[in-house]
Amino acid sequence: MSATSPTExxxxxxxxxxxxxxxxxxxxxxGANWSNFLARLTxxxxxxxxxxxxxxxxxxxLDGVRFLDIGSGSGLFxxxxxxxxxxxxxxxxxxxxxxxxxxxxxxxxxGEGRWDVAEGSVLDAATMAPLRNFDIVxxxxxxxxxxxxxxxxxxxxxxxxxxxxxxxAIYNYQPIWxxxxxxxxxxxxxxxxxxxxxxxxxxATEQILRGLVKDLLxxxxxxxxxxAKIGSRGMSMWHDWVxxxxxxxxxxxxxxxxxSFVRARGYSLERIVTCGGGQGCNEFVFRRG
Amino acid sequence: MSSSFxxxxxxxxxxxxxxxxxxxxxxxxxxxxxxxxDxxxxxxxxxxxxxxxxxDRLDGKHFLDAGCGSGLFxxxxxxxxxxxxxxxxxxxxxxxxxxxxxxYGQADSDWTIEEASALDARFMETFRLQADIVxxxxxxxxxxxxxxxxDLAxxxxxxxxxxxxxxxNRQQVLSRWWLTVKKTYNRLxxxxxxxxxxxxxxxxxxxxxxxDLVKGRNPVLRFTGAGRRxxxxxxxxxxWVGGLPxxxxxxxxxxxxxxxxxxxLEVLRTVGGRHGCNEYLxxxxxxxxxxxxxxxxxxx
Lengths: 289, 300
Description:
Chain A is an alpha/beta fold and 289 residues long. Chain A has helices spanning 18-23, 30-38, 43-57, 76-83, 95-108, 125-128, 149-157, 177-189, 193-217, 224-227, 237-246, 255-263; strands spanning 66-70, 87-92, 115-119, 134-140, 160-171, 267-273, 281-288. Chain A folds into two domains: 17-173 and 252-288, 3-Layer(aba) Sandwich (Rossmann fold); 177-246, no CATH class. Chain A has twelve helices and seven strands. A seven-stranded mixed β-sheet of chain A has the order 3-2-1-4-5-7-6, with helices on both faces. In chain A, helix 2 packs antiparallel against helix 11 (237-246) and helix 9 packs across helix 11 (237-246). Chain B contains eleven helices and seven strands. At the A-B interface, helix 12 and strand 6 of A face helix 11 and strand 6 of B.
C-alpha cells in the first residue's frame, strides 16, 4: 500500500484509451458485466439502492441536490439519486458502463433534463475541471480500479463543494489477501473468456462453500442467503462475484489510510462502515469544510 | 474540581463483581506488571502518547486518565508536563498507580489519584468540559456499560480538547467466542487460571514471532515493550483472556456515537478486523455542534 501523493500531472498518463487497456489484458470489462446485470434489474433492487443511499447520507430525499456519480457502472445509484430528487451527473471511463447508465436514464428516468451522462476518466484533468461544487460526490467501489487510486481519490474529493458530502467506498487492504488477489485478477484480465469463466465459477464455488460452512457453524439456514435474491445495495451476487474476481486494475487501502488522506484535504468524517477487516469495501462519508 | 474520595454509591462494587465471577481482577494483573516497569518502558509509553497526540510536551494540559490501570500512562503524561488526574474502579489499580507515583513522580507535582467509576455520573460531572486530554485506553469496554461510559468520558472533554480512546474491535463471530473464553476464565479456580491462559500466550507469541520474522524485525524486541506501548506481552494476554466485563464496537459505531456528541475524528488506527483495540483520537470543536444526523444508538 502506498500513500503517495501525485508526482506527475494526471493528464500525462492518459497514454492509452479504455479499449487499448482491455486489448492489452490490463483491464477488466466492468461495463460488459454491468449491462448483463441490467437485464435482471427489478424494482426491489432499485428500492434497495435508494435505501442504501438514504441510510448512508442520512436523509430521506435529495431534492435540489447536485449529485455527481463518478464511475456510475450500471447506473443503478445514479438512478436511485435521481429518483430521490437529485440533479445527477454520471461519468464512467468504460463505454459499456456509459451505455448502461444512458439506457437506465432513457428507460426509467424521464425527460426532465435532471440527469447528464458522459464518458470520462476521473484521472483526466480536462474531464474533471468543470465538475465542481457538487453537494454530493458519490464514488462507490470505483477509484481502486483506476490504476492510480490516490490521485483518483484526490480528484474525486475536489468535486465536492463547501459543506458538501464525499461518499466513497474503497477496497479494504489485507496484508496477505490483497497481494494474492492482485495476482489472480491480473491473470484473469489477461486470460481468454473460457478461462475467465472458470475463474469466476471457481470463486463462486469458494464463496458458496464458505457461506455454507459459516451458516452451519452459526446454526443458520444455509439457503436463506440465496432466497433473499437481492444482495446488499440491490446488487446481484453473481455479478458482484464476477466484478470481484475480474476487477483489475486493483488497489486497496486500510480505513485509516483513506481517512487520513481525505482528512488532510480539509474534510471531516461523518460516517464510516468498515467491512470488519475482511474482503470488500470500507465506506466513508466525508463532509467538506 | 473534586478530589474527594467518590465511589459509586448504588453501583456494583468491584469486590462483589469479582466474587460473582463477573469481573476480572485487572488491578491484580497490573500489580504483577509493576516489577517490569523500567525507564525503557516508561519512555516507550511516552513515545506512544506523543505519537498519537502529535505533540512533544503536555505542559499546562489537564490530563484525565479514566481507568489508569497500572498507572504507566498517567506517569508518562506526568513526565511530559501534564496536570494528571487518574482514577480507576479497581482498588489494586489505584494502588499500582500510587506506587508508580511514589517511585517516579516528582514531589511537587500536580497528580491526583483516586478510586472511582467511569459509570458514576456524579463523579464524571465534576470534570464536565474541563479536560484537555481524556485518555482511556482499553478501559470503557470493561465497564459492563460501554456506551454510557463513552458518553460520560466524552462529556468531560473541554472545547478544543481531545478524547483518546481504545476499544475492542467488533468481530462478527469471534467476539462471541472470546466472551465465552473470558467467562470460562473467570469461573475457574484462581490456581487453574494461569494454565488456562498459557496456550493463548504460546499461540499469540508464536504468531507474533512469525510475523516479525516475515517482516524482518527482531522477534525478541516485543518482549521489552518496544512497539507495544511499553506493555508486557504476558500481562496483556492475561488481561485479554480474563478481561470481563467485555464489550466490542466497530469503528462505524464509535464514530457515529462520538460525532453526535460533538467530537470530530482526528486519528484512527484499526486492528484490521482482528481482535484487539481500535484506537480513536477525537477532538471537541470550539464552535457549535457538528453537522450530523443524531445518535444512531440512542434510537435502538
